Amino acid sequence: MELRHLRYFVVLGRELHFAKAADKLFITQPALSKQIQQLEDELSVKLFERTKRNVKLTEAGRYLLDESQYILNHLEQVVEATQRKAEGEEGEVRIGFVGSAMQNVIPDLLERLNTKHPSIHTSLQELNNKDQLDNLLHYKLDIAFVRLESVPRELEKKVVFEDSFSLVVSKEHPIVSSNFESLKQFQREKFILFSNDYSQEYYDNIMSIFIDHGFQPKVSHRSVQANSIFRLVEKQLGVAIVPSAMQDGVNLDIEFISLAHLRQRTQLMAVWHKKNRNEALVKFLGLMDKN
C-alpha cells in the first residue's frame, strides 16, 4: 500500500462517482479503478458496493475513509510541523470561527497565545457552523468556534462564552432604547434574521423569543453574515435580533437595544477533534482553560 492509494480512495469515497473522482485526480477512470482494486486486494476487503447506477461505501469503506482522512491530514501537519521545528517554531493552529467570536473571545486568546507561545502561528477562517464542523471532521481545522448545542460524537466541546441577545434597529427608527418597553412593540415590523443554515438550534432559540411574546415574526431577509444583517437594518429594511457581543466595533447608523432580561441565551462553543494530536493545539487549549 502506498499513500497514493489512500489519496485516490479518499477522493472516490467523497465523490462516490468514478468519473468525477478521476477528473479531480487528473487520471483516467480505468487507472482509478485499478488503484482501488489494488487497495482492496491489499486489505482483502471490499470498500465499495458498485452497481451500474451508483457507488457507495461499505461499512469497512466508511471506517477506512475516516481513518485515511485523518492519516493524510495528520501527515501534512507532521511535515509542516517538522519544517517549522527546523526553523525554531512551535507549530500552527488552524482556527475556524463565526463572526461574533472575533468580537472578544478569539482576540483575547490570540493575545495570550502570542505572549506565552510567540512562535506558534495561527490561520483564521470565518465560516458558518456547518462548514466548521465538516472541516473539523475532515481534519482541515484544529479548532472551531461555533454557536451549537450538539456536535458529532467524534468532537470535544467546551463553552467559552455565554451571551444575551439584543434587538438591532436603525437610528432613524421611532423606537430606540429610551422608549423601548417590549418586543411586542415590533410585532408588525419586518425582521432580518440569521438563516437556519447558520444553525438550526440557534434559529429555533430565536424563534422561541417570539413564541414567548405571542407573535410570529414577518421575516423579510435571512443571512449567515452579521455585517449583511446590520447593513440591511441601517437601510431601514427591517430590525434584527443578534448576540449582544456583536455590537462591539460596529460603526453604522444602528442601535442595539438590550434583551438581557429575556430567558434566552446563546453559547459560543469551542470544538475540536478528539483524535487531533497537534502539539500546538494542546498548548492553545491550555490557554483557553484559563479563559
UniProtKB/TrEMBL annotation:
Q: Does the keyword GTP-binding apply?
A: no
What's the family?
Belongs to the LysR transcriptional regulatory family.
What Gene3D superfamilies does this protein map onto? Periplasmic binding protein-like II, Winged helix-like DNA-binding domain superfamily/Winged helix DNA-binding domain
Q: Name one Pfam family in it.
A: HTH_1
An annotated Gene Ontology molecular function: DNA-binding transcription factor activity
The alphabetical list of record keywords is: DNA-binding, Transcription, Transcription regulation
| InterPro entries listed in its UniProt record | LysR_HTH_N, LysR_subst-bd, WH-like_DNA-bd_sf, WH_DNA-bd_sf
According to UniProt, the name of this protein is: Transcriptional regulator
Per the record, the domain of life is Bacteria
